[in-house]
From TrEMBL:
Entry protein name: Probable transaldolase
Compartmental location: Cytoplasm
Top enzyme class: transferase
Family (UniProt): Belongs to the transaldolase family. Type 3B subfamily.
Organism: Splendidivirga corallicola
Entry's EC annotation: 2.2.1.2
The protein's annotated pathway: Carbohydrate degradation; pentose phosphate pathway; D-glyceraldehyde 3-phosphate and beta-D-fructose 6-phosphate from D-ribose 5-phosphate and D-xylulose 5-phosphate (non-oxidative stage): step 2/3
Catalysis performed (reactions): D-sedoheptulose 7-phosphate + D-glyceraldehyde 3-phosphate = D-erythrose 4-phosphate + beta-D-fructose 6-phosphate
Gene giving rise to this polypeptide: fsa
UniProt keyword Transferase present: yes
Length: 223
């Protein structure tokens, strides 16, 4: 299972990378705006800075929604670095563009996927990744994890090469459930990745081990 971090914050990306478990980064226009990254030059510079931190898989989203525009932006993004994966929305021109990128050796992440039908289209078009948004479905009382399960099963039926990238992950149980279901990738905020570390029995056990060690050092050695 691959771990991507869902942020455009360089410090958070570095922290997750330093943990040694990071396989990539997903950004989107909202996450870029949150970091105050505006203007073409700054946006390009920011993607390059992210690519300098991680080993591969940096999803950079196109803003255009028409076929020609998506191709133009996607090709420019892909030229920035081999690590770039062009993020394309699940719309008609997006699907056509994914097919074009796939034919031309450019990796894509089909984003804003909320149904199995959309996921089938993305795979048929040759997307490298498909991003179903779990949290946003849960927000409207629809089971996001069931969609992940459905897509994993459909892709297995036909041996689609498209990887299921579970997105919009809100908490550690989303991530663990995705692992059980067999999602290929999860993308989540740093707090979800570091949240996996925590267990009160680990903290309690470590404290006891260290105390016992300290006490033993204070006793004279047995002759
Ligand atoms: C995926 O690539 C998106 O950037 C992201 O997961 C959206 O998550 P949100 O619903 O928390 O905004």
């Amino acid at each position: 299972m691959k771990f991507f971090i869902d942020t455009a914050n360089l410090d958070e990306i570095k922290e997750a990378h330093d943990l040694g478990v990071l396989d990539g980064v997903t950004t989107n226009p909202s996450l870029m705006a949150k970091e105050g990254i505006t203007g073409d030059e700054n946006i390009i510079g920011h993607y390059k800075a992210i690519c300098d931190i991680v080993d591969d898989n940096v999803s950079a989203e196109v803003i255009a929604t028409d076929y020609e525009g998506i191709i133009r932006e996607g090709e420019a993004l892909a030229k920035l670095d081999d690590k770039i994966v062009v993020k394309v929305p699940m719309i008609k021109d997006g699907v056509k563009a994914i097919k074009y990128f796939s034919n031309n050796g450019i990796r894509t992440n089909c984003t804003l996927v909320f149904s199995a039908g959309q996921a089938i289209l993305a795979a048929k078009a040759g997307a490298s990744y498909v991003s179903p948004f779990i949290g946003r479905l849960d927000d409207i009382s629809t089971n996001g994890l069931e969609l992940i399960e459905q897509i994993v099963s459909i892709y297995q039926n036909y041996g689609f090469a498209t990887e299921v990238l579970a997105a919009s992950i809100r908490h550690t149980m989303h991530l663990i459930n995705c692992a059980e279901i067999g999602a290929d990738v999860v993308t989540c905020p740093l707090k979800v990745i570091t949240g996996l570390l925590k267990h009160p029995l680990t903290d309690k056990g470590l404290e006891q081990f260290l105390n016992d060690h300290k006490k033993a050092q204070q006793k004279p050695a047995i002759a």
